[in-house]
Amino acid sequence: MEISFHKLPGDRYEIVVRGRRGPDVRLPPRPTGPTIPHDLVHAAVEEALGLTDGFWDAVAQGAAFEGFEPLAPGRHRAPGPGVLRRKGEAVMRAELAVAWAYRVWSGPAGECRGVGRAPIDAAQTAVARAALDEAATRWAAVPEGGVLRWEW
Length: 152
Fold this sequence. Notes:
Structural class: alpha+beta
Helix content: 40-55%
Shape: globular
């Protein structure tokens, strides 16, 4: 599956996803946020930690989360709801791991006190932080109007 992150004017981005089970989809423009696109954070951390049952794997298997729309109009029988029924718990675990890694990476001095037990250990956190550093470098190198392509 190929995920294309399109850098748009006004600190916005959109995503086009091709080669997944089900129709090709796009996520219309949205704010990038304070650092890098949230969905790029998922791609970087899930790949770095080997999370094969997280958000992007669910998308690859045909799930379409809120906001995604088919690139081509038509009737599609997508396995999305079934994917989420089967993988929902694993997707949520990946969401927590990604959120933790992002919070540590972007927070003041990388500290996360008072939020409970970490969903990933210190070694995984270090791997995720390095992946986020690399993703941020790649995103910063994309000119406005350019595309960062991610193979999943």
